[in-house]
């Protein structure tokens, strides 16, 4: 039997494929929407931190619910697509990829929200412009990494994904130097302790956003190549094992 | 047509159902295995922290890979089950539930690993037994919550899940008082700063493990009831907005 003997069936397959493509596009659209919100959340949270803008900080906190809702929506759509279309191999990886990326974007939103919450605690103090510049430059690196990796996701560009993956070391390096700097300021003057503690957590949150960008890079690689990135990512975050001795 | 006219078909359905049950059991088994490892990782990490046992801490760090691998395995199996069996409604929720729980367990493992890494930084200092007791009692609450919620998951017991969900406030309360205590010690003597900073992060990690236990409680509710827990969980973690003024 040649395929021409089965026009009904052929149309059916075409129809199924088309419906599947529509489903995939919808998942892709949701990832792009979530990515845009996550980027905005990072920028706003760090902006609110730099300018001690409590109103902007509150907005970041309340916007997080949008990201959570989109993630649940994507999860539901992804699972229904798998159940309805029974995709295999590459197609299946496309859906799992969207699921994983949405998970990372949702977690980036949580971290931005946590930074925003700390803006209230920090009050109107403006100490140590160099530390704030460090936080800002770290967040710029993370924002660039996120933009690049979402771009790599959209174009299924493993080369660009790998560049983001390797670039995370630079973010970790800024976090390490910030960690030491903040501990030193705390030792210099105990009145800095509350302020610096909150900044330590903010810096850690930004560093973890970078980790999520590298997770997304790994997902892009998995979607295209069908396997996990084998060699361990060069780790550069040593703050968990860093100690700063008191000079006194 | 009565069903008896379709023995072949009926057998087919029975066969499919049986295969689906086997798949579900396998997912369940993986969740239970991951849960056991996650519990052990928490206990070992806090134990290593209390006794400054670097060897045990290293073991926690290296065991984390097992949890990651199991999570990937569960994800793969879940997706293949959805694609093969096209489950609907309750059956589909069973699979999504297993996926979500495995995600939370994997993140609990990451947090335990981060605590273990800090054991090395803390060295052999034994300061402030009251703080260490606070960390210990918080981790006991979290371990109990995790055991209870995994039990609720295994028995699909929404009542027990809700109890865990509501109990998270107690964990947050311990974390709040620890946060204040640690900041005060840092202000009292700058030589405590590095030590207390690492303990702050450890306490935060334990508090976040508690959040994952409440996530699992929400998943149990979703699996049984088919809808998300509507009222927001009472939040008791105020450390993001806590300030401790320097008394001097």
From TrEMBL, chains A, B:
<dbReference type="Pfam" id="PF01895">
    <property type="entry name" value="PhoU"/>
</dbReference>
<dbReference type="GO" id="GO:0030643">
    <property type="term" value="P:intracellular phosphate ion homeostasis"/>
</dbReference>
<dbReference type="InterPro" id="IPR026022">
    <property type="entry name" value="PhoU_dom"/>
</dbReference>
<keyword id="KW-0963">Cytoplasm</keyword>
<comment type="similarity">
    <text>Belongs to the PhoU family.</text>
</comment>
<keyword id="KW-0813">Transport</keyword>
<comment type="subunit">
    <text>Homodimer.</text>
</comment>
<keyword id="KW-0592">Phosphate transport</keyword>
<dbReference type="InterPro" id="IPR038078">
    <property type="entry name" value="PhoU-like_sf"/>
</dbReference>
<dbReference type="GO" id="GO:0005737">
    <property type="term" value="C:cytoplasm"/>
</dbReference>
<protein>
    <recommendedName>
        <fullName>Phosphate-specific transport system accessory protein PhoU</fullName>
    </recommendedName>
</protein>
<feature type="domain" description="PhoU">
    <location>
        <begin position="136"/>
        <end position="220"/>
    </location>
</feature>
<comment type="function">
    <text>Plays a role in the regulation of phosphate uptake.</text>
</comment>
<feature type="domain" description="PhoU">
    <location>
        <begin position="32"/>
        <end position="119"/>
    </location>
</feature>
<dbReference type="InterPro" id="IPR028366">
    <property type="entry name" value="PhoU"/>
</dbReference>
<dbReference type="GO" id="GO:0045936">
    <property type="term" value="P:negative regulation of phosphate metabolic process"/>
</dbReference>
<dbReference type="GO" id="GO:0006817">
    <property type="term" value="P:phosphate ion transport"/>
</dbReference>
